[in-house]
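Fold these two proteins, one after the other.
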Amino acid sequence: MQYVLLCLGGAEAEVATLLAGALAGYSCAVTVLPPSAAEARLGVAPGATGVGKVLVTTAAPPEELLRLRCVQGVLALVAVGRVGDTVDEVAKEMQGAMATNFTPALDVWRHCQCNASTVLTFRVSCLRGGAAHAFNSVELSGRLGASLLSTYPTLLKVDLVEHDVEVLAIVYGQKILVGLTLGVLDDCAKTATTKRKPPSESHRLPYAARPQREFALRPSTAAVLAHFAQLQPGEVVLDPMCGMGTIPIEAAIGFPVYAVGGDIDSGAVNGEMRAHVTSLAQHAPNAVVDALVWDSTLANLRPNCIDAVIVDAPFGLKCGKWAQLEKLLRATVQQTSRLLRPGGRALFLVHSFKKFRNWYRPANWLDVYEQPLNIGGLVAHLVIMHKPHTAPSARL
């Protein structure tokens, strides 16, 4: 069976490596779907269609794919093709492949959902971007839906709100793929067919079923960041701006490390984060996470005590004025240099690498590496730095 895994745009190679390791016991072929021309030119394309796409051909049960914490969504692949000049050409090209592959994909969906109903409601959603097309998302969704109805008139009925099956079409540049969603997709999957807000990743254990506030960072993104940090057993990992604790929790779930999260928002730390840590003890008893209320610019820890620091730096209008954020982040980078052990590494997820280069002294860091990523449709930058084994004599 073929699947498409949706992941963090720009981190496809990392996810493909993790996937190959997770499915080592099964026959498996993993391919990163090539980007559109615009994505290849930009490195990482903005918008919802800039999400990473990894094609997997495997005999493994779909539960193995849904178990991966670094994945935003899993599609049972129905069809892949090229976009024509008109919506009629696209529908015609997709119709044959959809008629052939829809039933096997639906069998996988039934297995995942434990649904043997003889009549299913469905809708077709469309994500489109990367190029100008002669049709819009609603038109394409309608034509693809009509093709399915004509092929399976007694099996399928349309319901745009209370549907059983979600058929997702992703149009990126001049390419299109169609699949059935097997897991709850990330909130990047906003569609043109409904204004209802899609569910977030709060369904993922150990997170509370209904947190008091929205996730600022998806758990799948935090899991990918932890893998980028190349964490080793027994290391101490710190997120000095942890908010609800998504990064330290994912680090502790994915690796045998001691994870620490701190934030100045006592409500987030003492509320959501501690509730998640309590739930973590039930679902991952070997994971160790501590929560602290503090100011990241005045971190009250001794020097050289942290092996890795992972920071999702705040940005955007809701986070305050840029001058205040710049002062905060510059001081946090300085504290990070003080706290890291020689040879330790720091990962900062920021909105501008150009501005970030003004926040640190090059003499204090080695091997500064920048990776563009698509974060919820926005292009951000993951900066990975290493602290020298011999600290410079100059002051921070």
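Now the second one:
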Amino acid sequence: LVWKRRPTYNNDAKVASNPMVTCAKLVYYVIFAFSYGLVGSLANLVMVNSSWTKNHIQYLWKLSGQVQVVFPPVDTKSLKGLSLEDRENMILSIGQFRPEKDHRLQLLSFAKLLENEEVRKSDVKLVLIGSCRGEDDRQLVDQLQKLARELNIQNHVEFVLNQPYSVLKDYFGRASIGIHTMWNEHFGIGVVEMMAAGLVTIAHESGGPESDIIQSPWNEKTLDYSNCTGCLASSIEQYAALMRRIIEDGSSSDLAMKIRENGRKHAEQFSDAVFMNAFKVALLSSSLLK
């Protein structure tokens, strides 16, 4: 992103528009990456949270030893008891309100979806649940609410802020579709939670969700969906098309139910028990205890 001089949440537009400042930032990144790799190569044991992170670390820490993937623990047990039946026309987004989560993409994709009159008449709703760490996050929510009004979708969008887990779990049991839009997220605990809760989950086609979580994605070109565990997208058009197909087919269609069942089953690979076993294996196989 810096090399391409593309402005984003961690590459200010003022920096991106200035070739000299961009060059200086690239030099800093090269020096930092070298130092980071040098220090990392001294580690006796390296555990990472996804195969995407593993590839990233192995590239930077060229001199490091074996890097072991240990997926983060996700409380799938409390979510798998939620019924898969009678889900509402609700699209659920979970996660802190931070720029890198790209909630803007969710609103733009949802607005694209509502261009279809039949879908708009179905009373479909987008619910964004998350926490605000401070004033910056609160301002981001204000900007997102303003965008929803500009897109004329405010009556179909709900923001749920700083609520306890019991409220989130209630929405998990009601929603039909889960949406995730963060680019290159290292793992994606929220994606696993949505799958475990029985949502047809549409995650960003990058990072951990692509490499480890939704390994058998469904799209409209997929003829056999018997093993599909969710969907992947990266553009407004892709997100909107996938949401539209699931909504038009119905929350209890064969397609939706198969993806829900497969997604929930696959989410078990990231349970607390699997984490504890993988952590133990990684620790015992290292030189730390020898």
